Amino acid sequence: RKPVSLPRLHEMRERGEKITMLTAYDATFAAAADSAGVETLLIGDSLGMVCQGLSSTVGVTLETMCYHTESVARGLRRVQGTAWIVADLPFGSYQESKEQAIRSASALMHAGAHMIKLEGGGWTTETVAFLVERGIPVCGHLGLTPQTVHALGGYRVQGRSDSDAQRLRRDALALQDAGADMLVLEMVPALLAAELTPELSRCHTIGIGSGNGTAGQVLVMHDMLGMGLGKTPKFVRNFMAGNDSVRDAMAAYVAAVKDGSFPDNRLHAW
Ligand code: KIV
Ligand code: NA
Fold it and tell me: Where along the chain is the active site annotated (predicted)?
């Protein structure tokens, strides 16, 4: 198997093949996801919640992100894995300046990431262009952006009003123009995500709680294994149901995303 690369992802996109992503935080589960055929692994700052027991992602540090990124990268090396590794820039590690952003992004790249992800639109455009010009592939993240949960007033659907939807569309197109190759859309209306996706032909939309019209899907691994702490969002499916192993559950997720049976748009009334 050849390593997943940006050209490979673009080829998949052109063929209309859905891109799969799962979060990964350690060597063993990263290797399992890779062998199940998950093309892209995200070391999400959701690790603050699922690994560290924090109540939001706001407290996650760059050092912690690097630790988990190194673990995932080593796990993949051990099994000659091929997944594309995306790592989150945590809260406070890129907001100050473009220079701060590239220092933090470099730390994640040194730890083994192939691409970094950062949250938000508008002001982030300049930062994304700065990173991309300097050779760092970037994934954006719009809609529900958990690092700004306190400013948003809670975990809820974004882009519902016309003006919010217009701003989201503007932000998404600006991120594509800045050179972002990927964009997570979290909890945005399924119709909006589906309309935006063809406009973002150079920037693969990866949806979570955003319906089945995106170029790919992502879930927090613990959620899709039925192991979420607290309330599991209703768009999540427990892929352990009917499967005997974590690897099989991950393979079932891949199959369901590829054949369009996950997610179910009826669970995305927004
Ligand atoms: O941190 C994370 O797991 C994420 C995904 C949910 C997109 O950002
Ligand atoms: Na995240």
Answer: 186 (proton acceptor)
